Predict the structure.
Amino acid sequence: MTTMFDRLTGYLHELRHDRRGVAALEMSVIGMMMISLMLAAYVLGNAAQQEVALEQAVRTAGEYAIANPTDVGGMQNVLLAALPTGLALSSPPQIACYCLDTSSGGMSALGACTASDQASCDGASPGVVVDISATLPIQIMTGLTSEALSPVTATYAVRVH
């Protein structure tokens, strides 16, 4: 019985001082951390790129609203057409119109963005603000949406009168 115990102790002693394979083990641990960091950098960079694309699309719709303040469908179409291929909004773009009260600096919501509603703002509050908002879920790769990253919302307000 003691010989078996002695052999086991001797084997463990040799194993403890054996340095073969240490570099491979260290590389596997460090390699996994490096791959995780590179993947995280890719995902965050991709999210930032999608946020910029959404902001540019909303801004493009705002520029369209300056020339066509009553064409809500046109604003939505311009926004959707300005998005890069592969990006899809989580819901249709939200477009709202407000009467601007220049004396108090406040705004009151209009029922719709029609010409007659906007004409009602010409009295004591001569100004109309069109507010365009869109929300985009962050996509890690085409068709793969991340639940860990919150969706990006971009809003653009433009005074049209």
